[in-house]
């Protein structure tokens, strides 16, 4: 008989920064490693985590399973503010680091930069109405810590955090490649708001499967 795991949700602190950055890369391809399509760990983590760890760390949480960090939930109470800081501060800083040679800009990185631009120009990125669902979240767990109920505890903890702040709507973005995550979100009461087929996905050079951006929303 497997011993019951002790699960604890704690506020993010900077001592978990490296774990968050590692986790986002190791789960960046449908729950598996992003290494298959994106060569540079630092660039991947900078783009996806810096806002949350550097500008709104109070809305991030770490799950501990028997004392070991199992992943993260990165939250934001005001998506408009996040978008503005990303546009004005984070993206320019990343561009400076690209020009300065701080990243490994291999063929996978170049392909994905181009495809991100294409996706934006084609309007294939999903978004929820921010007046109704102003908050958002990103959640990832290392593979070995899935299916212990950690994800549900982590999200419910975050929803309580939002309620305490008087925020009544939250959204999240995912994709059709996260096949195990989709029923998980729906079980927690998230409703699919939009599904958009991406013409040239980040993964189209490694798989011919159709790729869809998916947005979920929840009233809280």
Number of strands: 8
Regions with little confidence, pLDDT below 50 for 5+ residues: none
**SSE order, one letter for each helix or strand:** EHHEEEHHEHEHEE
Task: Sum up the overall morphology in one term.
Answer: globular
- Rg, please? 17 Å
* Number of H/I helices: 6
Proportion in helices: 25-40%
- Average of the residue pLDDT scores: 93
Sheet with most strands: 8 strands, mixed
Spatial gap, N to C terminus: 37 Å
Structural class: alpha+beta
What portion of the residues fall into strands of 2 or more residues? 15-25%
Summarize this entry quickly.
This protein is 38% helix and 22% strand. By secondary structure, it is an alpha+beta fold.
Give me the secondary-structure topology.
Blueprint: E1 7-11, H1 17-26, H2 41-55, E2 60-65, E3 68-69, E4 71-76, H3 79-99, H4 107-121, E5 135-141, H5 150-164, E6 169-175, H6 181-187, E7 191-197, E8 212-219
Helix pairs in contact: 1-2, 2-3
Can you describe this structure?
The chain is an alpha+beta fold and 220 residues long. Helix content is 38%, strand content 22%. Strands 1, 2, 3, 4, 5, 6, 7 and 8 form an 8-stranded mixed beta sheet that branches. α1 packs across α2 and α2 packs across α3. The protein starts with 6 loop residues before the first strand and ends with a strand.
List keywords for this structure.
8-stranded mixed beta sheet, 38% helix, globular, alpha+beta, 220 residues
């Amino acid at each position: 008989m497997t011993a019951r795991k002790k699960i604890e949700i704690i506020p993010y602190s900077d001592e978990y920064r490296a774990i968050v950055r590692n986790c986002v890369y190791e789960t960046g391809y449908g729950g598996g490693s992003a290494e298959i399509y994106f060569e540079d760990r630092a660039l991947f983590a900078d783009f996806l985590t810096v806002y949350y760890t550097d500008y709104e760390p109070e809305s991030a949480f770490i799950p501990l399973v028997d004392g070991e960090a199992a992943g993260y939930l990165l939250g934001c109470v005001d998506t408009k503010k996040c978008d503005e800081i990303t546009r004005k501060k984070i993206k320019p800083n990343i561009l400076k680091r690209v020009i300065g040679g701080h990243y490994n800009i291999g063929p996978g990185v170049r392909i994905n930069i181009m495809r991100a631009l294409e996706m934006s120009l084609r309007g294939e990125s999903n978004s929820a109405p921010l007046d109704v669902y102003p908050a958002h979240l990103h959640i990832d767990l290392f593979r070995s810590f899935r299916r212990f109920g950690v994800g549900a505890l982590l999200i419910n903890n975050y929803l309580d955090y939002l309620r305490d702040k008087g925020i009544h709507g939250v959204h999240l973005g995912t994709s059709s490649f996260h096949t195990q995550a989709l029923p998980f979100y729906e079980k927690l009461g998230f409703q699919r708001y939009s599904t958009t087929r991406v013409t040239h996905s980040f993964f189209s050079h490694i798989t011919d499967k159709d790729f869809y951006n998916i947005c979920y929303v929840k009233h809280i």
